[in-house]
Amino acid sequence: AKAEAQAAKEAKATAEAEVKAAEQAAREAELAAQAQAAEEAKAAKAAAEEAAAQERAAAQAAKQAEIEAAEQAKAEKAAAKAAAAAAKKAERVADKAEAASEKADG
Known about the structure:
Shape: rod-shaped
Distance between the termini: 155 Å
Mean pLDDT: 95
Number of strands: 0
Radius of gyration: 45 Å
């Protein structure tokens, strides 16, 4: 009976040690999972920030293109206006020349 009691005591001690080891392993696994989750969250945040930065850059580029297009349109309009004015002036000069020619003929 004494030997049986001793064996039971040892079995209990072994079981307790196994439970402790299992609990420790579970704690370590949980910590590892938390660390991995934190790492993944960090990576996701970095990716989101990168995407936001690219979006800002794209918006800035679009705005710049819009400004340049508007300026080009303005310049083209001014050039067209100047060309029209020059054409009008040339027409007046031609009319004057024609009138002078008619006067000379007359």
